[in-house]
Amino acid sequence: MTEREKILGRIREALVSPAPGPAMHDTGREPGLDAVPAAGSRQWLPKVGDTFAERLELFRKNTAELKARFELVDSPQALADRLVALRDTEAWKKVGVHQGELTGPAVEVLGLPVCRTDTDYNVADLESCDVGITECDALVAQTGSVLITSRSAGGRALSVLPPHHVVLARREQLIADLPEAFSLLKRKYAPDYPSFLSFITGPSRTGDIERILVLGAHGPKKLTILCV
Amino acid sequence: MSAPVKEFKQQAARLTHDLRHRELIQTALGKYELVRDKSQRAFQDWEAARNAAAQIKWEGINHLEEHLTQFVRLLESRGTQVHWASTGQQARELILGIIRRQNARSLVKSKAMTSEEIHLNEALAAVGLEVVESDLGEFIVQLRREPPYHIVFPAMHLSRGEISDLFRRELGSAPTQNPEELTMIARRVLRQKYLAADIGLTGANFAVAETGMISITENEGNARLTAALPRTMITLLGIEKILPHFEDLALFLPMLATMGTGQPLTCYNSFYGGPRQPGESDGPEEFHVILLDNRRTELLADPEQRDALHCIRCGGCLNVCPVFRNIGGHTYGTTYSGPIGSVLTPHLRGLNQWQHLSHASSLCGACTEVCPVKINLHHHLLHNRRNAAARKPAFGQKLAFRIFAAIVTHPTLYQMAKSAGRLLQPLHPLVKGTRLDPAYAWTHTRDLPRVAPQTFKEYWRARKSVPPENDRRAATPHP
Amino acid sequence: MTVTLFVPCFVDLMFPEVGISVVQVLERLGHQVECPEQIACCGQPAYNSGYWAEARRVAVPVLERLSGAEAVVIPSGSCGAMLHVFYPELFAGTPHEDAARKLSARCFEFSDFLVTRLGVTDLGARFPAKATFHDGCHGLRELKTHDQPRRLLAQVRGLQLLEMKEKVCCGFGGTFAAKFPMISTAMGEVKCAQAAETGAEYIISNDSSCLMHIQGLLGRQGSKMRTLHLAQVLAQT
Q1: What gap in Å lies between CA C208 and CA C8, rounded to an integer?
Q2: A7 → closest Cβ in B86, B163, B211
Q3: Chain center to CA of A139
Q4: Do A44 and B48 touch (CB under 8 A)?
Q5: What phi and psi values does residue B131 have, to the nearest 5 degrees?
Q6: Which of A137, B256, B395, B406 has a Cα-to-Cα distance from A185 of 20 to 30 A?
Q7: Chain C neighbors of B418, CB-CB under 8 A
Q8: pLDDT at A29 (0 to 100)
Q9: Looking at chain A, which runs of residues are DSSP E strands?
């Protein structure tokens, strides 16, 4: 018998005796499980408004609290201008990027040496970049998060290895909440999911030293989200 | 007294007298509680969320075979190598096997409590492998050669000064009181390790059955790097981490963050379903997932306490536990400390040897009150106590309780015991506070009240012959 | 109505004034009080230590003696929880299971009885002092008695109630206090410090076992704070 068979066998045997229904000890509820309890989670999670304006405001508020930089720009030209301005204030010398509708023109306008992560690349090359520029799958208003996958953001390392992560997004990508984000992932990718998916909620941080917040523990110290 | 009990009592005695430790922990946890409460209030209905989370976990655990099978099938369909380990020993051997086959010389780890549970680091060091803990808190305690103090905040017990000294000694860095500078020192050191490591080893917070993915929650980004750069990735997780559906994470990730650190959401919540796929530009060539039993199936077989397997390892119960706050995480001497540790350890490591953790509690119930998945924690401590007494009764205690039962159910015996108490009481000051004092456990630190000149029952008996209106006895404040 | 008073062993032996205060309050409200002599303990010490058979030896006479009671009032959260919450579990699967459940439904902690069952909050009490309230954990979490004591105290003339910053266990925990005295003491010290921070002269609670532990520490510290049971405050006129 393989270990798998042994373990599954033990599980089967163990579950012969039924356990009391969930959390009976203080609700006195009748046992009766909802089909998919999390489908209702929207009603319990923090509230999100129904309009774009409300969601935008919430996303703005959350990213500010997270110490991520968020800017909504009016046009592709404005986006290009912002990027150039950032290049100068942040003194970028080399850029990591992947191919995309928004990232393509961005790289052009920056005019800097580039490390592309669309196919096999040299990690040392990426390590020497000052910034990683990616697109995303969604911006989540409820939490101020950026949703990415290895397919939408140029692999696993581009958005986490360089000390600054810049996200280029379209305003249609702003969604309400986490439940919607999971629906989106299913619609977009199932059954052939990328091997890596992630919610990025602010720049990297730690509270391990006396619970004092420090940014840039291992991942990027700066997160900038530009939305056109 | 067996060794773990003795160790526990010695450590507890030391820590409970350490006022500096008491102050440090109270302050840290006070800060945590403020943010935790704020995040909880942001939920439209935290209690309903808890009920749903309890239900989801119940579903996952009580249909574990079905969910695990689906989880594994999907992982394997993407080229993941899934291994099953009945014991910690087997898990270690599996990992060592992977290391040998690759001639790996260095391994970078992100936080994995299961790896602590199976004492992996020692086993790896023994074969000459360089093992680096990348989580800052774990990195710190690794340098100190001590186990993590708390499952979420491994270095909670250390001040910045102590960390500065540690880095100076072990890394040769310049001393600094600035937490940012200290973090940057660690960042620089660890960066090189990620880039060079042959193998990345992670734990997992959840195992999503519906999509065949492991979910990792972190703030620092070290797990993301561990899962991105090395050629081989190994994830070690307990079989109980199962969540049935992908969207369950929409509920669990915010709840884990709220209880774990007080954040609305942790910085990085990442899901991994396989090694680098065709068309992907990076990621490990090999992805191994090791499913660990290590006596979890024994707990599963106990329907009364099965819900202890619902635990999402948020650390919320540790944070509220007044016992934990006063004795600290190391005193428990176990991988999992605090209330959940006290519930689990007898099942994972033996009831007789570890029952004392279930006794070292006032059963205040604060743990049960905060648990996001509504595990009946403090009642399980009672269940462990009952099981331990049934399996191997302590003769002295059993006898004492039988005598006590006889006394309190027979008024004559009760009367006699009371009279004896009254007689001996004036003699008590002679031995009070000394080793001869039968009440030493109490009088060592506390005054003992006297048996009242007239007990309530005596008053009641007397009163029956005195009409209530004439009873002018005022209920005077306690002297 | 006829109220059956269950007097915990430590109240009987060491804090009879608590029992007397309960009687005074209930009689002032026009109820008749009876107190069965033969039962002295709810059985919690043995239950908490895991010796459930021994606990049942103590609890069965309690079940039998209280079976006819209209309402059982217990001036202690911990004993109250034992009767109301834990008796059904202790007797599950035994011939007494049904009786335990029936009794449980008729058991009330003192403040809960007054406020929830009788609908009374104003007892005409007067106690001009600064005080804080310590919630015994069994009462607070097993019986959910949080508001009831506070609503009663709000009606006490002259009383200024100052809340502590946390609702945390005092560290008594029954046999825990003797088995792990250093932890119990540390927890108690934290409690005393938080009480002192409020500036209160008195610590009031609905559980004398907690008060015994807290007063024991206060005495050793030479503190001027005194402990009082809720019933004693409500009996003051």
Answers
A1: 9
A2: B86
A3: 8
A4: yes
A5: -110, 125
A6: B256
A7: 13
A8: 44
A9: 69-72, 95-97, 114-116, 131-134, 138-140, 145-149, 164-169, 174-175, 196-200, 205-206, 214-215, 222-227
pLDDT (tens digit per residue) in A65-85 = 999 999 999 999 999 999 999
- Measured between alpha carbons, how far is C22 from C185 in angstroms, rounded to an integer? 29
Question: How many beta-carbon contacts under 8 Å exist across A and B?
Answer: 312
Is A132 touching B (CB cutoff 8 A)? Answer: no
Partner residue opposite B248 with nearest CB, options A38, A127, A185: A38
Tell me the residue type at A87: R
Residues of B in Cβ contact (< 8 Å) with C39: 408-409
**Which chains does C contact via 3+ CB–CB distances below 8 A?**
B
pLDDT tens-digit map of A107-143: 999 999 999 999 999 999 999 999 999 999 999 999 9
Q: How far apart are CA A165 and CA A133, in angstroms?
A: 6
Mean pLDDT is lowest, of A222-226, B307-311, B417-421, C219-223, for B417-421
Partner-chain contact B52 A4, CB within 8 Å: no
User: A85 and chain B: CB distance < 8 Å anywhere?
Assistant: no
Res. B194: pLDDT tops 90: no
Provide the shortest C-alpha distance from residue B306 to chain A (in Å). 7
Q: How far is CA C163 from CA C43, C130, C131, C227, in A?
A: 32, 11, 8, 15
pLDDT at B433 over 90: no
Mean pLDDT (whole number) for C19-29: 96
Please tell me which of the candidates B362, B446, B477 has its beta carbon nearest to residue C226: B477
> Distance between CA A207 and CA B315 in Å, rounded?
15
B253: nearest CB among A15, A178, A195: A178
**Neighbouring residues of A85: CB distance < 8 A, sequence distance ≥ 6:** none
B290: enclosing H helix or E strand: strand B286-292
Q: Specify the pLDDT at position C39.
A: 85
Of C18, C40, C227, which is closest to B408 when you measure between CB atoms?
C40
Q: Could you tell me which chain A residue has the CA closest to the CA of B152?
A: A208
> What are chain A's partners, defined as 3 or more CB pairs within 8 angstroms?
B
* Residue-level pLDDT at A25: 54
Tokens 């602010």, residue located:
A202
Those residues whose C-beta lies under 8 Å from the C-beta of residue B238, and which sit 6 or more positions away, are: B114, B291, B292, B293, B294, B296
Phi, psi angles (nearest 5°) of residue A152: -90, -15
Read off the pLDDT band of B438 (50, 70, 90). Answer: confident
3-state secondary structure of B4: helix
Q: Is B447 on the interface with A (CB under 8 A)?
A: no
| Rg from Cα positions in chain C | 17
Burial C127-153 (b: 16+ CB within 10 A, else e): bebebbbbbbbbbbbbbebeebbbbbb
- Contact A157/B225, CB-based, under 8 Å? yes
Distance between A82 CA and the closest CA of chain B, angstroms:
25
Would you state the pLDDT for residue A36? 54
Separation between Cα atoms, residue B156 and residue B16, nearest integer Å: 16
**Residue located via tokens 């009641």:** B460
Q: What is the ipTM of this complex?
A: 0.95
Q: Which amino acid is at B293?
A: D
